[in-house]
Write a structure and sequence with these properties.
The protein has a domain at 3-124 and 209-283: 3-Layer(aba) Sandwich (Rossmann fold), CATH 3.40.50. It starts with a strand and ends in a 9-residue tail after the last helix. It is globular. Strands 1-2-4-3-5-6-7-8 form an eight-stranded mixed sheet, with helices on both faces. Helix 2 packs across helix 3, helix 5 packs across helix 6 and helix 5 runs antiparallel to helix 8 (183-195). It has eleven helices and eight strands. The protein has helices at 42-47, 68-81, 96-105, 129-137, 143-156, 158-169, 174-178, 183-195, 201-207, 236-244, 266-279, and strands at 3-10, 13-20, 24-29, 50-55, 87-92, 110-116, 222-227, 248-253. The chain is an alpha/beta fold and 288 residues long.
Length: 288
């Protein structure tokens, strides 16, 4: 797949981003530990005729650390530089708050919002063991070594690594999870591990203030895709959107957990995403 990479400097901050495919633009806000190389769902979007714009969110890659307000302003400026009046947004996992804030603050720029396994409110707190582990394992000083070790493990023993990590993604037993995936899913999981880095971004994700009134200010069509077996971002995050956003539609994924782009149920995710984007494509505008 052809990919172009760019660096945009504005107001003393840097924003790096990639563009893949041609057609109606989609702004993809990646999840935690991810970056502009995010693959989940991207091939399917490009094959469906969309252009996928993936910024490195603040703290990831060479993108500067920013406040939530600055992040939103930089995405709007990116759209200006690309001559895009309106864009569809897909916000993944820890990228959920970024997408929600953008849709709430700049409604005239957002044609639709898709939340995939997305954080939509209070997530991790200092009282959670996951919060404490994140500060130990994914500190900017240590994270590169952790991901190098995990990358080696993923290359030589992907099934064993998947079995060890399954419980962090799913509420199901490891055996139940294994019954819902096949070798191609293990290969996709292995590729995910080898491309991941935390940089300074993941701790920023963990520490950022939770979404509050922003959800109630969203007016564009919203599609929520979430698995009830998600252990990383529990299903309550999907339910929160449905209570707050009148324009939201929920699709419960019949899969195994957080990574809804692999395993049984993945086809449903791709199909529902493409249909929703096409239904709202008439709202997407590109300026001359």
């Amino acid at each position: 797949m052809k990919e172009s990479r760019y660096l945009l400097e504005w107001n003393g901050k840097k924003l790096s981003y990639s563009i893949r495919g041609e057609g109606d633009p989609v702004l993809l806000l990646h999840g935690g530990h991810s970056n502009w190389d995010e693959e989940f769902g991207v091939d399917e979007l490009v094959e469906a005729g969309f252009s996928v714009i993936t910024p490195n969110r603040p703290g990831y890659g060479v993108t500067s650390l920013m406040t939530p307000e600055d992040e939103t302003a930089h995405y709007a400026n990116l759209l200006d530089c690309l001559h895009i009046r309106q864009v569809a947004v897909i916000a993944i996992s820890a990228g959920g708050p970024s997408g929600i804030r953008l849709a709430a603050a700049r409604p005239e720029r957002i044609s639709s919002l898709i939340l995939q396994s997305a954080v939509t409110g209070v997530w991790l707190t200092p009282y959670d063991k996951e919060y404490r582990a994140a500060h130990l394992l994914f500190h900017p000083v240590t994270e590169r070594y952790i991901w190098k070790l995990l990358g080696l493990y993923a290359r030589f023993a992907p099934r064993a690594l998947f079995k060890q990590m399954a419980q962090s993604f799913s509420k199901l037993t490891t055996q139940e999870v294994l019954e819902k995936i096949d070798p191609s899913d293990l290969a996709a999981f292995s590729r995910m591990i080898t491309r991941q880095r935390s940089g300074r971004g993941f701790l920023l994700d963990v520490k950022r203030p939770s979404i509050g009134e922003e959800l109630r200010r969203i007016s564009c069509p919203v599609l929520v895709l979430h698995d009830v077996n998600d252990a990383a971002v529990p299903f309550i995050h999907a339910e929160r959107v449905m209570r707050a956003v009148e324009t939201a539609r929920l699709v419960q994924v019949d899969g195994w957990g957080h990574l809804i782009w692999i395993g049984r149920g993945a086809r449903k995710v791709f199909d529902e995403t493409a249909v929703f984007l096409n239904e709202n494509s008439k709202r997407t505008e590109v300026s001359e």
